[in-house]
Specification:
two-stranded antiparallel ribbon; Rossmann fold; binds S-adenosyl-L-homocysteine; alpha/beta
Length: about 220
């Protein structure tokens, strides 16, 4: 066996461990989410120096002081959106592009926004080299949403803000869902699921979480 194959074997072993923990420790039950996480090679989304830690049960540092979210939080947020493969999804805070890849596996099209230009360019290249053809990624302030492609079936925000950005709710379809960490300070948030109604929206709280800050017009 050559060393490339050994590395792949080691990574699939670790990926299997991650999936076990998502099922048993965290109670993720949506098989399509678990399957997507079994398919997307997370080790290609973390810096090369920490590749061996890619499947650990925590967030990891990426470039520009940002993080790739913990596998559980990626699974949980995706599961709460209830994707079936037909949706048009908006993602804010693409970072490494890992969550983008999971969303792109489970929906029809993903429009993703990342504030930091360097991260946006790297994520775009990574996703293209992995063969994702249903992702459009741009750099900018995602708290304004992306009105050119609205309305969205689902919106995922991967950074924590002080409240629910109004433009994002406006760009959701009636019945569409927005998942976002919201907190009064920058160090902790609660995971909030918003469902757009004919008039206004409803909110459900899925408990505490910790994200990097959502920085922008409708963020911090
Ligand atoms: N899902 C990503 C998480 C990256 S961390 C991953 O797993 O890799 C959150 C990202 O949100 C950071 O890259 C940060 O730069 C970005 N961000 C913060 N505020 C933003 C904004 N207003 N618009 C778009 N991206 C933003």
């Amino acid at each position: 066996m050559n060393s490339g194959a050994q590395i792949t074997d080691e990574m699939s072993f670790q990926r299997h461990g991650m999936l076990e923990s998502l099922r048993t420790k965290y109670g993720i039950t949506d098989e399509s989410v678990l399957e997507a996480m079994a398919t997307v090679p997370r080790q290609l989304f973390v810096p090369a120096a920490i590749k061996s830690q890619a499947y650990k049960d925590n967030a990891l540092p990426i470039a520009s002081g940002q993080t790739i979210s913990q596998p559980f939080i990626v699974a949980k947020m995706t599961e709460l959106l209830g994707l079936t493969g037909t949706e048009k999804v908006l993602e804010i805070g693409a970072g490494s592009g890992y969550q983008t890849a999971i969303l792109a596996t489970l929906s029809r099209r993903v429009f993703a926004i990342e504030r930091l230009d360097l991260l946006a360019r790297e994520a775009e290249q990574r996703l293209a080299s992995l063969g994702f053809r249903n992702v459009v990624l741009k750099s900018g302030d995602g708290t304004n949403g992306w009105d050119a492609y609205m309305p969205y079936d689902a919106i995922l925000v991967a950074a924590g803000g002080p409240g629910i950005p109004e433009p994002l709710v406006k760009q959701l379809k009636i019945g569409g869902k927005l998942i976002i960490p919201v907190g009064e300070d920058q160090s902790s948030q609660n995971l909030i699921l918003v469902t757009r109604k004919e008039v206004g929206y409803s909110q459900e709280d899925f408990g505490p979480c910790a994200f990097v800050p959502l920085i922008g017009k409708h963020g911090w």
